[in-house]
User: What shape does this take?
Amino acid sequence: MKIDLNQLEEVAKDLYIRALKELPPDVKEGLAALSKSESNAAAKRILGTMITNIKVAEDTNNLLCQDTGIPIYNVWIGHGVQVDGVALKMAIRKGCERATREHPLRSSVVHPISRINQQTSCGEGVPVIHIDFSSESDTLVIEMIPKGSGSENNSWLRMAVPAEGINAIKTFVVDCALDAGGKTCPPTIVGVGVGGTADLCVHLAKIAATRALGTRCVDAEGAKLEQELTEAINMLGVGPQGLGGDSTAFAVHVEIAATHITMNPVAVNMQCHSARRARATFRPSGVEYGF
Amino acid sequence: MTHFDFATPISERDARMLHVEDTVTLNGTLFGIRDATQIHMFDHGRRTRFQLMGHAVIHTAPNVRKVTKSAAHPTGYEPVCVGTTTSDRMERFTHPLMQQYGVRLVIGKGGLRERSLTAFRELGGAYLAIIGGTAALETTWIESIEDVDLDDLNPESLWKFRVRNFGPLLVAMDSHGRSLYSDVSLSAKERRAAALSKLGVQ
Assistant: This one.
């Protein structure tokens, strides 16, 4: 299967706009479930407003949140897909820039030192593009995540040591949730990276934070940790928007990687209640949009 | 819990009537400010031509569309999506905003800290919580962008919005020394030991 780069650019543009306007079904269901189980009346009202906002965004064809985020594109290239890697990255970048100009969207991206905003949502290293490979034949998948800054500003890494054990990981995640309070726009998906190198650990936390609700860590130890931490975080009473209540997190997600005998790293990255993502799958039969 | 309908600007007395857990709906003018706006105003010595005395400011940087100037869009900007950002980053600007410009109400999400609470108490003001991430809804409360200043900082310009039935907003920090965020944070810290115990951490 040969990828048409013009089509790829259009899809990269559409994905950014789609992600900003429609929440994935798992997130909508997650909000509905929390709204049902929440015991604090004020918190329940806040969750209700979040649900109303989803409807208003759909009815008015508007963005769910003003924060257009840092654009992230995750690409998986399957067997037998023919595409020039450099051209693919350029097409994604161009699509991202066109979404910003043509919709129009607020460009939330600036040079880190001069703070100059080029009004394109692009800059050095942004959009973030991750390219990986899959064993699925004749399939190219692009996932788009506009990562909001409220949650991204609350990211942590701790290079714990083996003598501190699993308790260091558990304590760290609880303390991060306390530190975040209402700043991350809870209820959140708390992404936890365990193991790897420092950079891999943080990347794992981001993968965990942006994974669909209802999915589990493929590693059995990681899955067990997810369940334990979800219960513990929701005992804190931080609640929606940090104003109190049971619904602090939709879930805690864990991703793991092997690590060094001397290392015990843990990272936390959070995703806000507007857990936006969109997906396009290229097949020989055409392009299919989803989440 | 009392509900207040305010037409901006408001007086110090109005601001001091507000207590935590009251609700407020605003009509009239609302100013949008952000990180860069305030960094330039308070660190780089820039002044705005707007009169902020008695007004409410919201922590925002909107999505806007450039259109032909008209009565409906006097600045040539049409609001696309106007929402609210995390206030905590702008903690140090609450006091100068109130002292130098006479701002009475700060609207944001996630809350502010102790220095802002002191400013509200000393100078007469309050923090009104909006529900973060509900910008599509918030946009329906914005009538127009009446004016804009410091627009070289776009989207972090100083925006002058005309709003209608903007709210209800929750009074989360008041001039009487109360902050819902401090209350929740304190209670959450008290529950830390129980959460860790549940995790088997002693």
